[in-house]
Amino acid sequence: MTDLLVHDATVVTVNRENQILRNGSIRVTDGRITSVEPTESGDRTATADRVIDASGKVVIPGLIDAHRHTDFTLVQGLFSELDGSELLKEALALYHTAESVLGDSFFEAAWDLACLRQLTHGVTTVNAMDFTPELGAEAIGEAGLRGVIGPELADLLNPVSADEQLQAARRFVDSYHGNYDGRVTASIAPGGEVGCSRALWEGVAVLRAEYPELRLHTHLYDSAAADTMAAGSGADDPLDLLEQYGLLDERTLLTHLLHADRDDARRIAESGAHVLHCPTVYSYFQAGDQAWFPLPALQEFGANVVIGLDDPFWFDSWDLIQEAKHARLLSNFEYGAQQWSSYELLQMLTIDAARALGLDDQVGSLEPGKQADFVVIDVDTPRHQPYSNLPSVLMNSVTAGDIETVVVDGDVLMRNKSVESLDVERVHAAAMRERERLQAQTGWKTSLGGSTPPDISILRRISARPVLRAVNQYGHGVVHRYF
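That's the Cytosine/adenosine deaminase sequence above. Prediction below.
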């Protein structure tokens, strides 16, 4: 018995043959794809628990956000007009205010809202690094989404000791890895060469040896002082730091690489590590002197480069398709046209990202035997018709507003833009309540015209902590996101 049948769709499989079916049908049983074939007349009258007539629609694999921080979903819009250094300092202070004053309900509402936004933007899998991973695992699991989540470890920029953070990470892995029918998995997520002491890296190496199946997810070279910070842990540079602890291989995910050079790109590619590129955040603030990351060298040496949206409070976006578009435009501006084709961008958001997360045997393409994670996009509108070169339409013209239906593990989470797996009113009510509490506790003012920080910076209204001393010592451009 077929649980779900989609017929008459243009199916972009992203399989090894790069196959696109003009009129295709997808059958799903027990959460797995059983067939992807041309539509036959009988498909239109076939019996299934759920049938989706996708005439005039395009079906692609579910989108994968390869790098995300989610704790601060509810501050979206507060920091958008600040310069980078002011934003960072206010964010650091605001996090500790929320942690100590607002409590779990603030972060629970943030995660639920994040899941709603990911779902409605066609993101079926997210790779997250956060300080509230337990809340995230439960929110993602209950929403029906797929997630790889790691507790962010950064003892130099966090008052909690390395041992305590590592123990908490081990508890998280033991409690949540493989939960929700395998949709939620754990990662090991040290913040990077800036925020981690030698003791923490030693503990990370031990933790990874205990859990060799987990991905290691970290920031690297997002600061001009990266080599200096790595030297503090006894290494020549950040890659040497990872190599010393046996942490640089095909299970390693390296985020940003803003200040990496051609030789770094070669070493990364040779190790098999994956690169998580977040283009908009750095073009929004242009952190540091270097404008872009070493894309041509990474391409030359064959590194797997995929795309993530990073923090929601930097530039207020949840649209991964638009992020891919920005990646191409900004890379073309920096290095010349034709850095990526449209189809390559689509692969980066699907099968390449799945490979980075070690999930390419489960998701990332539409093939028999894989989990049924896909989105249905409406292109049968005056805004898109007529068209040719479908990959170009998907990567240049489509936005998240065109996504109509979202399926994960064969379950329909959103149908005809109506969310089925979340109580939308409840999520919005909680978000509004917690956002109001946030503003009342911190003194932030908001209006339709913008937002205003407190008259007296909240940096002056919380007790001095190691994290703030670290920011003052190293300055903007060194610390990207560590709380």
